[in-house]
Specification:
Layout: H1 2-19, H2 34-44, H3 54-65, H4 67-76, H5 80-83, H6 85-91, H7 103-114, E1 122-131, E2 135-142, E3 147-153, H8 157-178, H9 187-201, H10 204-219, E4 238-242, E5 247-248, H11 262-280, E6 282-284, E7 292-295, E8 299-302, E9 308-310, H12 313-327, H13 331-340, H14 350-361, H15 374-387, H16 397-413, H17 419-434, H18 437-460, H19 473-496
Antiparallel strand pairs: 1-2, 2-3, 3-4, 5-7, 6-9, 7-8
Helix pairs in contact: 1-8, 3-4, 3-6, 8-9, 11-16, 11-17, 12-13, 12-17, 13-14, 18-19
Length: 497
């Protein structure tokens, strides 16, 4: 029955897009093939609400479809360089300018979650100042005089999320089975990743913990900061944080603040994201303009930590090596890392893939953002990844999505943003620290320690009755272990030397 309901809702979503002429809009029919144009003309017969620009119609559709669709709209709105400025601006209201729910409902929810009257916690509980897909924020003042933002989940949002996730999961399964051209994008695994991230967003206690963790990570570099969590005002459906400095980037007035250094601000955004991902393996994975505040000269503050991405040590190394290879224009090394990581099937040629990467990298390397047609670059990348059978990696979905979002926001802050120049200090620092001889020795020592513990456990698991030990067997064991470590050191030297 649940699958039937999800299927009906999926049909309903398609009908909403058709009714608003947002599925295959007339304005871009010049890009359609003959068959797609015929289909679009047929569907347009059912478009009963075609007023507004394509972006306005799509925003209207997404708002009707619910939280998961709104998240997609927020992502698209960060890439005016790909979809056009008007389209991105029309979708921009999905970031934090959705219709709010009544304040009296928010107050009741806060009292229920905190187990106390509003007056016992806040001297002032204001009207909503921002409303997004899952929650809205209120401007409040604590009894001790601190100005805070109180985030309250929308009534009934958990049920809506459950329904949306069922539809997304069904869509992923249908694409996986019936759309061979997109199978390498792993739509089913992609859907599972998005569903899991979305489900975690509706427990604001987890968001508070994530905000607290990332505040410590951000403090190490100072590229970005986060308002402090007020733990006394945290519940499953309520989160209280100190008020962020500056203005939200979604406000047009933000970038017009006196004394604002737009170049430094864009650089800080790129470096903050990379420092989080590379150094600690944990990063804010929803860095659109509605979640970022800026203050002169180049201070950047992040809010809304509902989606947090995490990378393992191995993934961080691959990411750093790929970025470092591009920075040095060492396409052969970049290609080899893709093969080592399993991103490209082994039956392809490393050198041929390096040649393809050079075709993408050289035209854009060192050029300012407004001199690069990102839509053409992405098209070329998509064609190359298809040619070399690269499949989407579910564990990297949030990383890739955030990288695209961060670049889009940085371009809006500074149209001449040089993403490679901004990334270079952070990547160079990581390479120097993690791939230095001392680091390699520490890594090998750690691996040796793990091997010894495993051997000890195996020894303890042996039956009590043992044959007499052969003289020198322990020496042989240590010699074998030493040889393995030395061999590992040699391989590491070959790989990274």
């Amino acid at each position: 029955m649940a699958s039937v309901g999800a299927f009906l809702r999926l049909l309903g979503a398609g009908w909403t897009l058709v009714r608003n002429d947002a599925l295959l809009p007339k304005e871009i029919e010049g890009f359609y093939s003959t068959g797609v144009r015929t289909l679009a003309n047929g569907l347009r017969l059912f478009a009963s609400d075609r007023h507004g620009r394509p972006g306005e119609r799509l925003a209207r559709s997404f708002e009707h479809l619910g939280p998961v669709a709104i998240k997609l709209g927020q992502f698209l709105s960060t890439r005016s360089d790909i979809f056009g400025r008007a389209f991105a601006e029309d979708l921009g209201r999905l970031k934090d300018r959705l219709p709010p729910f009544p304040t009296h409902l928010a107050r009741a929810e806060v009292e229920r979650e905190l187990g106390r009257p509003i007056a016992a916690v806040f001297s002032t509980f204001g009207e909503p100042v921002a409303a997004a897909s899952l929650a809205q924020a209120h401007d409040c003042v604590l009894l001790d005089g601190r100005r805070v933002a109180v985030k309250v989940l929308r009534p009934g949002i958990e049920r809506r999320i459950t329904d949306d996730c069922a539809v997304l999961g069904l869509a992923g399964r249908l694409l996986q089975r019936w759309a061979p051209p997109v199978r390498r994008l792993e739509p089913e695994a992609f859907a599972r990743t998005v569903i899991r991230a979305t489900e975690l967003e509706v427990d604001l206690r987890l968001e508070a913990a994530g905000a607290d963790e990332l505040a410590e990570v951000m403090a190490a570099d100072g590229y970005m900061a986060s308002p402090k969590v007020v733990w006394d005002g945290v519940g499953k459906r309520v989160l209280t944080m100190e008020w962020a400095q500056g203005l939200p980037l979604s406000d047009d007035a933000c970038l017009e603040q006196p004394g604002l250094d737009r170049k430094a601000l864009a650089d800080n955004l790129t470096r903050a994201f990379l420092a989080q991902a590379l150094d600690k393996g944990v990063f804010h994975a929803d860095l659109h303009e509605g979640n970022l505040f800026a203050a002169a000269p180049a201070k950047l503050f992040a809010v809304d930590f509902g989606i947090i991405g995490r990378l393992g040590v191995v993934e961080r190394r691959y990411l750093a090596e790929i970025l470092w290879g591009f920075l040095r224009r060492d396409y052969e090394r970049v290609a080899q890392v893709h093969f080592d990581a399993g991103y490209v099937p082994s039956h392809h040629s490393v050198s041929a893939f390096a040649q393809a990467l050079r075709a993408v990298g050289e035209p854009v390397f060192g050029r300012v953002a407004n001199a690069v047609a990102m839509s053409r670059v992405l098209t070329q990348l998509f064609e190359i990844t298809a040619l070399y059978e690269m499949r989407l990696r579910p564990e990297l979905v949030l990383l890739q999505k955030t990288m695209v979002t961060v670049e889009g926001v940085a371009r809006r802050i500074d149209p001449a943003h040089d993403i490679w120049g901004a990334a270079e200090p952070v990547v160079r620092r990581w390479i120097a620290r993690e791939l230095s001889p001392i680091s390699r020795i520490k890594q090998l020592a750690g691996e040796a320690g793990t091997a010894l513990r495993n051997i000890a456990r195996l020894t303890q698991a042996q039956p009590v009755a043992q044959p007499p030990p052969v003289a020198g067997s322990n020496a042989l064991l240590w010699f074998a272990l030493g040889a393995a470590v030395a061999g590992g050191a040699f391989l590491v030297g070959v790989m990274f030397g």
